[in-house]
Design brief:
The chain has 206 residues and is mostly helical. 34% of the residues are buried. The structure holds 2-acetamido-2-deoxy-beta-D-glucopyranose (5 copies). The site of one 2-acetamido-2-deoxy-beta-D-glucopyranose has 2 residues, from loops. Belongs to the PMEI family.
Length: 206
């Protein structure tokens, strides 16, 4: 719920900032944009942030809308990375729940899908815990917080990876399973990116 609201707010801000209406644009004073148009400057922020991730294009594609708010702030980028992963994880979980009584898949696939549901529930729990810590970062507890985040996000990533492993030997021809595998792979990549952005935060400090 909350993450949708944040995303919506950020998207609205971005649309406002990128508005083609010159009178709207000129009322905003981007002090650090004196020699550059807004878009290239802001795309540099997201590219810089995503440079530490393994799936850079996916990172830029999914996080560019946070760029005006996050700029070069590592803690905001880590939060954005986790928020986007949560949204995607919930989407997969909804799909997995829909397949519960599907007759279109074989027995082994059904078991793999059922395992995935449990793994994704666990993953989502770890992601929510991570987001809540990222929302209350504190210089005095920073080391402990970073260590917790690394633990939870690694666990979330492992869960999503394990889910995919479950399909390895099923050689599925089912279009449902193929679709879930494709989406779950992307979700795992988002999670990997979120972990990398959090490692960058640990490195940069508050
Ligand atoms: C914009 O910021 C600059 C400082 O870089 C300042 O000199 C200028 O007066 C500001 N303009 C407006 C409209 O606030
Ligand atoms: C990304 O990081 C590499 C080194 O790891 C560096 O050479 C490159 O310039 C960076 N790119 C950007 C856009 O920051
Ligand atoms: C972020 O950018 C500002 C200038 O725009 C700079 O003063 C600050 O040091 C930068 N912070 C980091 C963590 O790079
Ligand atoms: C980055 O953003 C957080 C809030 O998310 C803020 O507390 C922190 O001071 C910011 N860091 C910098 C260097 O601006
Ligand atoms: C799946 O089937 C069981 C009974 O076999 C039923 O209780 C459950 O509501 C069904 N779930 C869905 C999502 O259709």
């Amino acid at each position: 719920m909350n993450s949708y609201l944040i995303m919506f707010t950020l998207l609205s801000l971005l649309l406002l900032a990128l508005s083609p209406n010159p009178s709207l644009a000129s009322t905003r004073n981007y002090t650090d944009d004196t020699n550059a148009s807004i878009v290239p400057r802001y795309s540099r922020y997201v590219k810089d942030a995503c440079n530490v991730t393994r799936y850079k294009q996916l990172c830029v594609r999914t996080l560019w809308s946070f760029t005006i708010v996050a700029k070069n702030n590592s803690s905001k980028w880590a939060r954005a990375g986790v928020a986007v992963t949560i949204t995607d994880t919930k989407r997969i979980l909804r799909l997995l729940l829909k397949t519960r009584n599907s007759s279109a898949v074989g027995k082994r696939e059904r078991i793999a899908l059922s395992d995935c549901r449990e793994l994704y529930v666990d993953s989502l729990g770890n992601l929510y815990q991570s987001l809540s810590v990222l929302r209350k970062l504190d210089a005095d507890q920073f080391q402990q917080q970073m260590s917790d985040l690394a633990t939870w996000l690694s666990a979330a990533l492992t869960d999503e990876d394990t889910c995919l492993d479950g399909f390895e030997e099923t050689m599925s021809k089912s279009s449902t399973v193929r679709m879930i595998k494709r989406k779950a792979t992307r979700c795992m990549h988002l999670c990997s990116n979120a972990l990398a952005l959090t490692n960058k935060l640990a490195y940069d400090g508050l």
